[in-house]
Amino acid sequence: MNTAAAKRKKRRQKLAIALAFATGFAMPVTAKPLEDENTRKGIVAYYTIYIGGLIVAEGSMKATLAEKTYLLQSKFGSAGLPKKFWDAKWTMTSEGHVDGNELRPSRFAFSSVENEERKKRLLVYSKGGMPELTFDPPLPPGELETTEPFERKRTIDPVSSLLLPVTGEGNPCNRKLPVFDGKRRYDLDLTFDRKDKVVTRNKGYDGEAVICTVRMTPHAGMEKAKIATMRSERDKTRIWLAPVNDGRFYIPVRVQMRTPIGIAILDVVRMRPLAMTTADASPP
Questions:
Q1: Whole-prediction pTM value?
Q2: Given 37, 122, 142, 177, which residue has the most CB atoms within 10 angstroms?
Q3: What is the CA radius of gyration of the chain?
Q4: Could you read off the pLDDT of 218-249 as tens digits, one per residue?
Q5: Would you give the end-to-end CA distance of the chain in angstroms?
């Protein structure tokens, strides 16, 4: 393969993984509704992401769910063949409050290492829901101006986007989630499809799930080529949701979508209760 073709293939793989993460791949999962006290305090879960039948990423998530607050801590990295030419690691932390059927993040931190290039991003939210942005290294002025203040207000970060609080007998689907990750602004529209049984990879989850279709609507902060790709694929994403915390929250156990290089699937592969300590309940 010549150098130009190799670069194009690498860009397609990076775009496919980015699409996967944008539609909620970095989320906590569980095998059944939480029952005992240890599980009720938290869970740690492990995931794999396959595209075209080949593993491209793997990682883990710690989730702490309290009555009025939440804390999510995730770590993902490239795996399999992509790791040989694109060694990447991503760490994300989100914390905030639960307000009825909605989440109100107070802080979102993101850090990445891609082929030894390090980047950090921090969003701190005001009481009115306006995120204050900090980047290390700083972004060029032109990139900072790709989203308007009114587009960022009352948004949620990507880690929080698919932790779905439900009150009463509410449906975890049939909602619009306004997402802002510090650079990109998009909506995730979830529509109820059906209920069905699902068995994920390695039987990480084996049980009933609510299936939603997901439409991703990009608004700002993205290249035109990526926007075109997302719009062309936005009606082809499905997400399987399972209840946790006595059914008070729903979270993904599987996500399936088309990408430019094949079908991408996120699956739960293993999970265990999180033995809570002061360190576990505090952000890093």
A1: 0.79
A2: 177
A3: 18
A4: 888 776 545 555 555 555 789 999 887 778 88
A5: 43
